[in-house]
């Protein structure tokens, strides 16, 4: 019997706990009793734990009483974890428990607890797309893969935001019990076995913007207002009244990305809005957003989001679009 522990605390995101637990609980329906998962919630505080949505859950035991060597130990996330600190004894326990566990990791922003416990140093990890920069700043030696739904690095497993914990646990279930059991669980939960694309498709913006006082901000506004025009580096350098070489350096410094990447990102953002809210043909959207044709737009979507424009529309479009 494999043991799975979810670490929870006051302010935890309830889906970060219930989603992974439901994957393994549903798996028990398809397994012989001696192959079942034993599930446990470990609390970082005594007493009931109030989730971020107001729901209250009870832990099976306090971390100070959790001495078992779990087969899988996952730390759930919560909206406040980017800045929240815990007592040193909690980090010390996590270090010991992670060393004893067959596998350990985090759901969503639970990665911040692992980072503060020193468990992400020099490891490949992911977290919610909105927190990836903050995690990289907190743990500079970690390689934060911001677009991944989940990342495996040895015995460490981290997932992206909230429901990506289900994706991760379906993957772990497949590793443990095979594809058929995991597929049956996915069908029971009415979720996909393997979601297409990464989590960038869920983020509202792809393109970072320069500070308003920078001359590059003026160029960026020009790009946003002229998506169908020639937006080559030479043209944009002229808008900024700079040489091409000086402009390219200044743009990369102030916008943190090269000019061509910003242009493509701006066109992508515009196309996403139209795919979400209109029924316009793909070729029309491609032209109005500056891609010239649907083939080029599809290439940009596949490269940046991992899915086609048509799939993006199916995922996020309104019923009328």
Task: Please give a structural write-up.
This protein is an alpha/beta fold and 321 residues long. It has two domains: 201 residues, Class I glutamine amidotransferase (GATase) domain (Rossmann fold), CATH 3.40.50; 102 residues, Homeodomain-like (Arc Repressor Mutant, subunit A), CATH 1.10.10.60. The protein is 44% helix and 12% strand. The protein is built from 13 helices and eleven strands. It has a seven-stranded mixed β-sheet with strand order 5-2-1-6-7-11-10. Strands 3-4 form a two-stranded antiparallel ribbon. A hairpin with a 5-residue loop joins β3 and β4. The chain is globular. It starts with a strand and ends in a 5-residue tail after the last helix. The model has no long low-confidence stretch (mean pLDDT 93).
